[in-house]
Amino acid sequence: MIHANELKTGTIYITNGAPYMVENLVKQTPSARGAATLYKVRARNLLNKTKIDGTYRGEDAFQQPDFRRANVQYLYREGDMCVFMDLESFDQPAMAAADLEYELKFMTDGMEDLSALILDERLVGIQLPDVVELELVECDPAIKGQSATARTKPAKAATGLTVQVPEYMESGEIVRIDTRDGKFLGRAQK
Fold first, then answer.
1. What does the alpha-carbon distance between residue 10 and residue 89 come to, in Å, rounded to a whole number?
2. How confident is the model over 67-81, as pLDDT tens digits?
3. DSSP letter (8 states) at residue 113
4. Strand partners, 122
5. Domain 68-127 belongs to what architecture?
6. Strand pairing category for 152-157 and 114-119
7. How many CB atoms are closer than 10 A to CB 80?
8. From CA 118, how far away is CA 190, in angstroms rounded?
9. Which of 2.30.30.30, 3.90.1200.10, 2.30.42.10, 3.30.565.10 is the CATH number of 2-62?
10. 121 with 141: CB under 8 angstroms?
């Protein structure tokens, strides 16, 4: 059992008789005394990919599905299918690219450190690491000089993801991006 106050982005739980993965979570603490903290959750059904929005109190409990995780590598995209390789059994399961719309923004060919979620021997989802490193391929020219405010500009990563970066960043740089909210974290260590 897992309680609503333990949910976070990427957590998988059962509601309405189906497994769901949390995509977005907002904690809402009322100002009135004695009022319960509410957790507003947007989750995606791992079987049919529909989304639901729910509001839960911290003590609301959910079951966790009986699935297994496998370490996989993203190999390539072939048409509308994405092909992965299980790093232990070397099986190559595939999943529809439409079902990985969010995850594809952070995945590059050959990427490892991914977890495949397998339910009844069927690949139902991919869990990303919390931080990925991506190359900036499109970016306005760097602006030098000091500013009293931290100004940003949009930049496009090699995967097509658009992220706000500091104005001193240039095309070709490798940056760290948080996969939970898509925000720039800093330059990658060389």
1. 25
2. 888 999 999 989 999
3. S
4. 119
5. Beta Barrel (2.40)
6. unpaired
7. 10
8. 35
9. 2.30.30.30
10. no
